[in-house]
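To: structure subgroup
Subject: Chain for Friday's discussion

All,

I'm putting the inputs and outputs inline so they're searchable in the archive.
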Amino acid sequence: MVTIQRTELKEGIHAAIEKAKNNSASILVSEVQKIDSCLPLSFFAAGKDKYGGERFFWKHPSEESYMIGLGICKEIVSDQATDRFFHVEKEWKRFIDQAIILDDEHVQGTGPTAFGGFSFDPYKEKTMLWSNYASSLFHIPRFMLSVIKGQAFLTTNVICHHDHSPSLYHLIENERQELLEHSSMELKFDLAALVHKQELEPEAWKQSVTKVVEDLKNGPLKKVVLARELRLQFNSKIHIEAVVERLLKEQKDSYVFAFEANGDCFIGASPERLVKKDSHEVFSTCLAGSIARGKDVVEDEQLGYSLLTDDKNLIEHQYVVDMIKAAMEESCSYVTIPSQPSLLKLKHIQHLYTPVIGKACEQTSLLTLVEKLHPTPALGGLPKEPAVAKIREVEMLDRGFFAGPIGWLDYNGNGEFAVAIRSGLIQGHEASIFAGCGLVEDSVVESEYEETNIKFKPMLSALGGIEQ
């Protein structure tokens, strides 16, 4: 059984109630405790009955860090299109500034942490598909498990009001102990069976590709990314835990994420970091240009070599490199970047890959970097604003959070965001999965269509739609 060795939460709640009375404001008290080893997926599953619809799951590609949140202590939400990154940052800072934080561990990714993301394009007309997700949505969890380099930490977040009684501690402590008790249980997760798969207007999508390629030949745009949707129906309600379990097994080199909101769950396994901030050190990734994996080692190496020498993919990749380098240089005192891409090989696909490292200037925040980098040419196009406007005009899909930034930021300003690709939206018995491709002036419609089919595979497999 997972146990807590000591707690200062009782004293923290008492102090927060007094502070709330004096300040006429609600006060967060947050406690970080080192705990016995706890399996991330078991903790996530333990919260299903009580916190279903209010959970998140995050795994770093290195498997050195996991973050799992249960319940919603505080929500930062906005559907405003302008200044949305500034709005989230302002709300987060206001919330944290008054907080009482009991943290002797000082480990990044513990303590008060906001998890969530931003939609790809807040100006795109919203459909019912994404009705449960605002264009900016972040949750600060009631309980959060952080497993960092094999060590487990539990963060407990409580909002205290002036009229609360110190007995609130006993309610929280009972809730916490019950959760940890259930986190030790052995659980089995079953996949629902896929009964129907529907491509949404594939011919119309191909016609849009043809039109955009013609525009690229005749106009100032260099690249535009178009995405499409596959709608899946299952014989029973989809168990989020089962899908996360499959993603953890099949996509070990990717960020695995799940973000529940009002009964839906946005879930995926992204190979692409948007930006990470660790004190003043910042890291980004250029990921563009892709090809399938081979059936054997020889074919796989041949495909990889062809990708590394393919002009179309190299040009597409260089667009991303140039844009990310320029965006980072605006906010960093230095930026380092390799002169040539390498290969990132995943289970179903391989990509051209270039890492970027920089040192952020003193006033550069994580969300400032997210705003500057989103969307990269890998998901939007080039030049950025005209490309996104073109997507808004011709793409039938409401992307919602697909291809947007998803991730976390902690109370010290550190955090990490991935680009939410290889992803899907689970809604009861149904799911939508998404894939996009980068169009340049020599793109071929059928090749781009096949590329999206390859990019559907990670989520299709995780949902049980591909035979193993």
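Points worth raising on Friday:
The chain has a mean pLDDT of 93.
The chain has twelve helices and 23 strands.

D.
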